Structure formats: C-alpha cells, structure tokens
Amino acid sequence: MAEYKPVLSVDSINGNVKNVRYAVRGKLVLQALELEKQIKSSGKGVNGVNEIIYCNIGNPQITQRPITFFRQVLSLVEYPELMKICPAGTFPQDAMDRAKRLVAATGAVGGSGAYSHSKGLQVVREDVCKFIGARDDVPCDPESVFLTDGASSGVKLILNLLIRNEKDGILTPIPQYPLYSASVAAFGGVLVPYYLCEEKCWGMDVKELERSYKEATAKGIEVRALVVINPSNPCGQNLAHDNMAEIAKFCYEKRLVLMADEVYQDNVYGGRKFVSFRKVMFELGEPYSKHLELVSYHSVSKGFMGECGKRGGYMQLENIPMDTMAEMYKMSSVSLCPNLVGQIVTDLVIMPPKQGEPSYELYQKERTTILESLSRRATKLSAALNTFEGTIVAHQYRLLTSAGMSCQPATGAMYLFPRVIIPKKAVEEAKKLGDTPDTFYCMELLKGTGICVIPGSGFGQVDGTYHFRTTFLPEEDKINAVVERMAVFHKQFMAKYHD
Question: Where are the alpha helices (DSSP H) in 198-321?
Fold first, then answer.
C-alpha cells in the first residue's frame, strides 16, 4: 500500500493561509512564554530575569480590575436566581434592573444561553443607536448596526465582501494593526500601504493617500476601501477634525469604502477630544452624507473597560445598499449570532450608569482612576524613552543620532511606537541570525530584561527605519521598573554594537 500522505499537509493547505502574519502573538511572545516557563520551573531567575513583563498586547485586565457595575450585571444575567436568594442590598437596584431588562431581551428561561438574532439582540442594537446618536448629534437606525465578537469579526466580514480576487486592494496605514494585513492576505487581496508621518506625531497626509492610490491603480489594482485606525494602533495618535474631513472627501472622490476602526475612542489624552468619522461625514453634508460608504467599529476590549475576553463590539453602517446589507445578514447568519455575553457587555459599555443612579459615583470613580492612570503611564514612558542615549531636541520633534531612540507622545489608544537607530554591527548580527534588526533588538531586550515588546516590522514601517510597539499597561509601580530596565539594556546594547 502506498504511503499515507495527510490531506492537510502544510504543502496542500490554502496558500493564502501561509501568507498570513500576526506578530502580536508571534516569535517574541513564544520566546517570552518559554522563558516564563523556565523561570517558574526553576523557582529562580534565568540569566538575571525574574519575571516577564508583557508589553506586547493591549490586554488590560491582566493587571486592571474590571468595572464593578459590569461584573454585577453579568453575574445577575448569568444566574438570575441571585436576585432572589441574595440578601437585600447585595446588588444595587440599577444593576438588578439592567439585568432583568437584558434577561427579558434574550428570551431565555434564565441567563445568556440561547441564540439571539443574527445581528444581535434588538434591545442592545437600539441602545447602541442611542449612544451613537448622542455622540454624533445625528439619529441612528438599529437596522444599520451589527453586533460582533469584538471588532475583528466585523472587519473580516467587510474585507471578505470587498476582496473578490488578487487585484482588489485595501488602502491600509503603515504602521498598522496586523489584523488588516493578515485578513487581506487570508482573503487573497492586496494590501495597498500608505505611510503615517512620524515627524508629525504619526499624522495622516492626503497627499500620501493620493500617492499610494495612484501607484496601486497604475499596477492594475482596483482600490476598494481605505482603513483608518483612529485613535491609532500602534502609534497612539488621535486625528484632528480637519484632517478627518479631508480623508472623508478623498474616499468619496475615489469611491472607496471608509473603514473607520474607532475601538480606542475612549482612550484619548492631551486635550483633543475624539470625533467619529460618522459625525464628520454628516457635518460635511451632501454629497458626502448621502453617498459616502462608511463602516464604523467599536469594541468593549479597549478603552477603560478592557473586556478583551468577553469579545463584544459592533459595526455600524452608513450608505451601504440594502441588497448588500442582506448579503451581510446572510453571512452573519452562517455563524448564527455573536456571543451573548459580549452583547451584554457591549450594552453596559455604551449605556453605563446615569447620574442619580446608585452605581453612578463608583462607576465614575473607577473610570476616571483608570483613564488618569493610563495618561500618566503614557507620559512617563514616552518621556523616558526620549532620554535614551543619542537623542537631542529640535523644536517639538526629536532628532536622532547614530545610536538613539525617539518616541512621539500618545494622544490616544494604549501604545507607543518608538523609533530606534540600530548600529550597523547589530544589523549585521541580525542578518546572520536570519532576523530583522528590530526583531533582534526586541529579542535581546526580552532576554536581558524580561520585557516583551513587538518589533515594528510586524506592523510595517518605512524601509531603513526600526521601531517597536509597547503598551503602557503595566501597573504604575512597574512602569518605573520597565523604564529602568529598558534604559540599562539600551545603553549596554549600544555599547556592545557601537560602530
């Protein structure tokens, strides 16, 4: 009998799958997990490293306590009997009222165990529309809302609709969140890169959009959509209103779907308020408000909530044809429905306790404490990175010498994306190992300090430049340790590989 050959051999699987890259949980993280296992099994440090500090992913609740009101309502929804058996006063009245409303909306005998409508619970979609309408000063139709398992499933649904063949392109920021490059690759499309301007706090320039669009179309690529991540992951910028208006006009003129990833809208710092692309579009008036095809995303995973594991979120659509909406509903129905716990958390996030309700003061205190702490950590870490060897100040930006680091401040999200000038000797050493120079730098940082960050090559960067993405999520008492360890490592690394 002939030798059995697996049907699912790596040589026979869909080639698009093998083209997918996702650095956020890639080589550096696997090495960090292995190093952590060695530390735990040995009961002592490994090469002077006693713990792993994960700065690689926006996963707030590794260290951050959840919002009390959210956990109270979730407990009651999952086990409604608690409202009968617990002593009076165990749960505040507004938490019990919200739980009763949501349990009734599920139609289930008790809890969140039944399927919902494929677009999500009607009552939650109505609440999402109240939130959007109040935010944008423009009413919102519940039929335009799809609840999703985080923002990611909604992003992939739209990209799947847009990409028909290998000639369909998606304008995507560089640096970008790898969800987009991975999904475009998986669906067999073309990522059309446009570069954010590091010297202008990672701002967007419409001239750069024009350049990228023109180059792509000259190659026979049909550009179908523009992705904007605002506030930005991985760069942490929050776009100005006028810039957003230019972007909306560009999309209308080029007939592009505008995919507005706004999952960090609750993470804004430095005085500039978040403004949605939907609000900007309606302020522009016709023809933009009537014709610009806009898909906006929000999620419970980020902000001050950090409910990543609950996988809740929504996408909201404007000016998408009804027959296309029907196709989207069909595709959503294939998965039956988004998970119920995620839907419930979405409702709590966009409809928190109101002033005068029992849970309001505690909710506001917890929310403010988290956001103020994030702002302090962002400021402390970015300021420290700008003091590392080789940096000098010129006006509002930092210039780089042959052995320095430069970090633009975060005005949104929960990340910094510092640039590192890596000496030639280190670049050559990286090549010998088959690594990119920024991967080599980050791997040495991990081995020397236990700090896990992600190399900029996983997000995209201008050729010849090197960066890494770090969160500023470690607790405030650990941020100082992160800064100190990074500073010592950087100095030693530069001394070792000095040209």
Answer: 206-218, 241-254, 277-284, 288-291
**Category of 332 on φ-ψ map: left (φ > 0), alpha (ψ -120 to 50) or beta:** alpha
Cis peptide before 455 (omega within 30 of 0): no
Cα-based torsion angle of the residue sequence 42, 47, 49, 54 in order, rounded to the nearest 10 degrees? -90
Burial category of 280 from C-beta neighbours within 10 Å (exposed 0-12, middle 13-18, buried 19 and up): buried
d(CA 295, CA 477): 39
Question: Of 243, 230, 227, 152, which Cα lies nearest the Cα of 193?
Answer: 227
Dist. CA 480–CA 487, nearest whole Å: 11
Residue range 85-126, pLDDT digits in tens? 888 889 999 999 999 999 999 888 778 888 888 999 999 999
Q: Which two tokens stand for residue 210?
A: 């024009």
**C-beta separation of 412 from 268 below 8 A:** yes
pLDDT band at 48 (very low <50, low <70, confident <90, very high): confident
Rounded (10°) CA dihedral 12, 16, 17, 19 = 110
Mention every residue, 6+ apart, whose C-beta is less than 8 A from residue 242.
none
Nearest to 92 by CA among 70, 69, 112, 74: 69
CB 393 within 8 A of CB 195: no
